[in-house]
Structures are given as C-alpha cells and as structure tokens.
Prior knowledge:
Layout: H1 45-66, H2 70-83, H3 94-115, H4 118-132, H5 137-145
Helix pairs in contact: 1-2, 1-3, 2-3, 3-4, 3-5, 4-5
Amino acid sequence: MFACGARAAAPEPAKPREETPQITTVCPMYGYRALLPQGAASADPAYDRAHYDAAHDDFDAQIAISNNQHRKAARHYLECAARFRAVATESEMRFAATANARICYTNAMIAFANAGDLSTVGRAELERAAVDDPPLADAIGRMLAAAPSECVP
C-alpha cells in the first residue's frame, strides 16, 4: 500500500532514438523460373543445341538481373525462347522445347515488369514473339492477359 502524500518518482524522459533509415521498395521484384534440366543428351541434336544455347541466354539474363538491367534480361529471355523454335514439331523433345520456351517467355514478361516496361515495350515485344512463334501464340496471349503489374523504378 501507498502512504498518503508519497509520490512515485517521475519516470525519466525517453531518450530520442537514432533514426534507422527506411528502405522503401517500390514493388516486390517478381521471381524468375528455371529452365527444365537437360540431363543426358537426347535423341534430337536440334533440341540439345537449342537447350545449350538457351542455357547461355538464361545465364546472360541472370547476369543482367544481378546488375538491375531487367530490360536487357528480357531480351535475353526472348532469345532463349527463340532457340527452341528450331526443334521440329515431330521431335520427341518437342514437349520439353515448348515447356522451356514458355518458361523463357514468362521470364521475359517478368523482366519487362521488373523494368517497368511491360505495358509498352514488353507488350509489343511479346506480341511480336506470338506472331513469330505460332504454336505458342495462344499461351503468350494468355500470359499477357494475366500479366503482373509493373515495377516503377
């Protein structure tokens, strides 16, 4: 119990805290997908060559991304997708080639979004890719219809 007339000591005023700088992210960067692994050589040399070259495009895109050059990365991913067009429609590796091309187109779309260019340059580039790659034209159209929002640098 407290005695009458006794006062509790006033708390000391709080010392001002040093301000921690706040890092503001304009938007979260969208993540990229990896190509399907190659493994051993396939029965189709055209697919093996396409995958080899596309893996180099993917690597170059990753370097561009690490340097915050997303527009450059998008162009590498468009090249990556184009590599798989060389695989014949009757090839036993056509399914893998189509799946990898979709991954490349998706990564290109994400890179354009991360660059803040999807609604302009990116859309035009992907629409051109749809014309150049008729088997994937519908898939590219669906990707654009459900495209992510852009990061604004």
